[in-house]
Amino acid sequence: MGRSLILFDLVLLDRPLCCHPLTSLIFQCENGHIACSSCCVMLMSNKWTSCTLPVGIYRCRILERLVEAVFLPCRNAKHGCPENSLMANS
Protein backbone atom coordinates (compact mmCIF):
# COMPACT_ATOMS: atom_id res chain seq x y z
CA MET A 1 0.00 0.00 0.00
CA GLY A 2 1.38 3.43 -0.95
CA ARG A 3 1.69 6.15 1.64
CA SER A 4 1.62 9.88 1.14
CA LEU A 5 3.41 12.68 2.93
CA ILE A 6 2.42 16.32 3.19
CA LEU A 7 5.50 18.46 3.73
CA PHE A 8 5.14 22.05 4.87
CA ASP A 9 8.85 22.91 5.21
CA LEU A 10 9.75 22.74 1.52
CA VAL A 11 13.26 24.07 2.17
CA LEU A 12 14.16 20.50 3.13
CA LEU A 13 13.79 19.47 -0.52
CA ASP A 14 15.58 22.43 -2.11
CA ARG A 15 18.55 21.77 -4.33
CA PRO A 16 21.70 23.03 -2.59
CA LEU A 17 23.11 24.64 -5.75
CA CYS A 18 20.15 26.63 -7.05
CA CYS A 19 17.61 26.44 -4.18
CA HIS A 20 14.79 25.25 -6.48
CA PRO A 21 12.72 22.17 -5.52
CA LEU A 22 14.37 18.83 -6.29
CA THR A 23 13.33 17.06 -9.46
CA SER A 24 14.20 13.61 -10.80
CA LEU A 25 16.85 12.40 -11.59
CA ILE A 26 18.72 12.95 -8.32
CA PHE A 27 22.39 12.07 -8.03
CA GLN A 28 24.79 11.99 -5.09
CA CYS A 29 28.50 11.81 -4.46
CA GLU A 30 30.04 9.20 -2.15
CA ASN A 31 29.65 11.64 0.77
CA GLY A 32 25.92 11.99 0.12
CA HIS A 33 25.86 15.50 -1.38
CA ILE A 34 22.93 15.66 -3.80
CA ALA A 35 22.22 17.36 -7.11
CA CYS A 36 19.50 16.85 -9.68
CA SER A 37 20.47 16.24 -13.29
CA SER A 38 20.13 19.92 -14.27
CA CYS A 39 22.39 21.01 -11.38
CA CYS A 40 25.06 18.41 -12.17
CA VAL A 41 26.07 20.40 -15.24
CA MET A 42 26.60 23.51 -13.08
CA LEU A 43 29.30 21.75 -11.05
CA MET A 44 32.86 22.35 -12.23
CA SER A 45 33.99 19.02 -13.71
CA ASN A 46 30.90 17.40 -12.09
CA LYS A 47 32.64 17.58 -8.68
CA TRP A 48 31.47 19.15 -5.44
CA THR A 49 33.72 22.03 -4.42
CA SER A 50 33.46 21.13 -0.72
CA CYS A 51 34.54 17.49 -1.00
CA THR A 52 35.86 17.27 -4.61
CA LEU A 53 34.11 13.94 -5.16
CA PRO A 54 32.32 13.37 -8.47
CA VAL A 55 28.54 13.71 -8.55
CA GLY A 56 26.34 12.43 -11.35
CA ILE A 57 27.40 8.79 -11.18
CA TYR A 58 25.29 7.44 -8.32
CA ARG A 59 21.52 7.88 -8.35
CA CYS A 60 19.79 8.61 -5.05
CA ARG A 61 16.70 6.52 -5.76
CA ILE A 62 15.23 6.77 -2.25
CA LEU A 63 15.19 10.57 -2.48
CA GLU A 64 13.69 10.33 -5.98
CA ARG A 65 10.89 8.16 -4.55
CA LEU A 66 10.38 10.58 -1.68
CA VAL A 67 10.05 13.54 -4.07
CA GLU A 68 7.50 11.56 -6.11
CA ALA A 69 5.43 10.86 -2.96
CA VAL A 70 5.37 14.34 -1.42
CA PHE A 71 2.16 16.34 -1.59
CA LEU A 72 2.53 20.11 -1.65
CA PRO A 73 -0.07 22.33 -0.04
CA CYS A 74 -1.70 24.91 -2.28
CA ARG A 75 0.09 28.26 -2.41
CA ASN A 76 -3.09 29.69 -0.92
CA ALA A 77 -3.14 27.27 2.05
CA LYS A 78 -2.49 30.16 4.41
CA HIS A 79 -5.80 31.58 3.24
CA GLY A 80 -7.64 28.31 3.88
CA CYS A 81 -7.30 26.42 0.57
CA PRO A 82 -7.29 22.67 1.38
CA GLU A 83 -5.96 21.51 -2.04
CA ASN A 84 -2.71 19.54 -2.40
CA SER A 85 -0.70 18.43 -5.43
CA LEU A 86 2.10 15.95 -6.01
CA MET A 87 5.53 17.58 -5.92
CA ALA A 88 6.55 15.58 -8.99
CA ASN A 89 3.75 17.27 -10.96
CA SER A 90 4.61 20.81 -9.86
Automatic annotation (TrEMBL):
UniProt signal peptide: 1-19
Designated name of the protein: Secreted protein
InterPro entries given in the database record: SINL_plant
Keyword annotations from UniProtKB, A to Z: Signal
Signal recorded as keyword: yes
Keyword Signal: yes
